[in-house]
């Protein structure tokens, strides 16, 4: 589905300790596929380069020896900045590094606003967009999308739900959401139902990054937030009991890596690479490292 803290000062220490333990890939420099000091790094290092996959690399990537990735690194645990403030870590990073190792190329992660990444891919700025994108019909008209994970929407409130939020009737309440996400679309539709029924609209508090959305909720600026399920559940864990889930996950859908529309062979090669990782038993352990293996899929495909 989309996106993503400067949490309150009381929480910063706990978050920093957690981030420090993760593998890394610098935003500003080329990083070897696989990162460092993680189970994902081991998987990537042991992966055998597949000549058949290499043959499907676009000429630009072959020449550069690297895949340039656009990512919004504010969406823990999928993609976020490590304690140094410049190294991207997370499930998406570990998984794509392992995939890139099968092509024998490096990965360079470049920071971007979530809603600018697809445009960056179609304009040639990025070779691939990796930022927890839900696969939608509208996006498939712009780019190829390679499925690799499944997530739904999860609402989150402060502990005890002090403002008595009901996701099915949030009329008149301030709800946090990241700009350009499917959750923003969902909340907009819910707000229209409110006004159509003669009730107050939902006050959408829209932020560029999910980290700020979470901070708004922790600080009481909003009554609840809606985010992708792994992100919402991770925020609950990282805020040491300050937040809790509201209701169940809904509208589960696959995430997709974003590839230019005219590079379907490359998109299929990426799907084949993650299939190979899964067959070798290397896919689920990467997800398990981030406690989100419940989102594992088996039907890796282009534009499912």
What does this structure look like?
This protein is an alpha/beta fold. The chain folds into 2 domains: 9-151 and 253-295, 3-Layer(aba) Sandwich (D-Maltodextrin-Binding Protein, domain 2); 152-251, D-Maltodextrin-Binding Protein, domain 2. Helix content is 36%, strand content 24%. It has helices at 9-20, 39-46, 51-54, 59-64, 91-103, 117-122, 137-140, 182-196, 210-218, 229-238, 264-279, 283-289; strands spanning 25-26, 66-71, 74-75, 79-81, 87-89, 106-111, 128-129, 143-158, 174-178, 203-207, 224-228, 243-260. The chain has a 5-stranded mixed sheet, with helices on both faces. Strand 9 (174-178), helix 8 and strand 10 form a beta-alpha-beta unit. The longest helix is centred in the C-terminal third of the chain and has 16 residues, at 264-279. The two termini are 15 Å apart. Residues 1-24 and 28-47 have low confidence and may be disordered.
Task: Give a brief description.
With 304 residues, the chain is an alpha/beta fold. It has helices spanning 9-20, 39-46, 51-54, 59-64, 91-103, 117-122, 137-140, 182-196, 210-218, 229-238, 264-279, 283-289, and strands spanning 25-26, 66-71, 74-75, 79-81, 87-89, 106-111, 128-129, 143-158, 174-178, 203-207, 224-228, 243-260.
């Amino acid at each position: 589905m989309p996106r993503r803290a400067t949490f309150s000062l009381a929480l910063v220490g706990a978050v920093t300790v957690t981030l420090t333990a993760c593998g890394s890939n610098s935003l500003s420099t080329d990083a070897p596929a696989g990162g460092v000091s993680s189970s994902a790094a081991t998987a990537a290092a042991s992966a055998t380069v597949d000549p058949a996959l290499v043959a499907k690399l676009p000429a630009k990537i072959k020449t550069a020896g690297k895949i340039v990735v656009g990512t919004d690194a504010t969406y823990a645990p999928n993609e976020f900045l490590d304690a140094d403030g410049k190294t991207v870590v997370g499930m998406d990073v570990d998984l794509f590094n392992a995939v890139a190792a099968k092509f024998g190329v490096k990965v360079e992660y470049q920071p971007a606003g979530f809603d600018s990444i697809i445009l960056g891919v179609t304009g040639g700025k990025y070779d691939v967009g990796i930022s927890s994108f839900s696969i939608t019909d509208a996006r498939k008209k712009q780019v190829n999308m390679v499925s690799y994970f499944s997530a739904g929407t999860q609402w989150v409130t402060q502990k005890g739900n002090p403002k008595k939020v009901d996701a099915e009737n949030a009329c008149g309440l301030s709800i946090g959401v990241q700009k350009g996400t499917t959750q923003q679309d969902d909340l907009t539709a819910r707000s229209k139902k409110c006004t159509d029924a003669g009730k107050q609209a939902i006050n959408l508090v829209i932020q560029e990054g999910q980290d700020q959305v979470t901070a708004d909720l922790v600080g009481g600026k909003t009554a609840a937030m809606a985010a992708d399920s792994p992100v919402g559940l991770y925020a609950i864990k990282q805020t040491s009991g300050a937040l809790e889930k509201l209701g169940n996950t809904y509208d589960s859908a696959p995430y997709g890596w974003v590839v230019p529309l005219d590079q379907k062979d490359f998109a299929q090669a990426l799907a084949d690479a993650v299939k190979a990782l899964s067959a070798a038993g290397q896919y689920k352990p990467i997800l398990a490292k981030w406690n989100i293996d419940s989102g594992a899929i088996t039907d890796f495909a282009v534009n499912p």
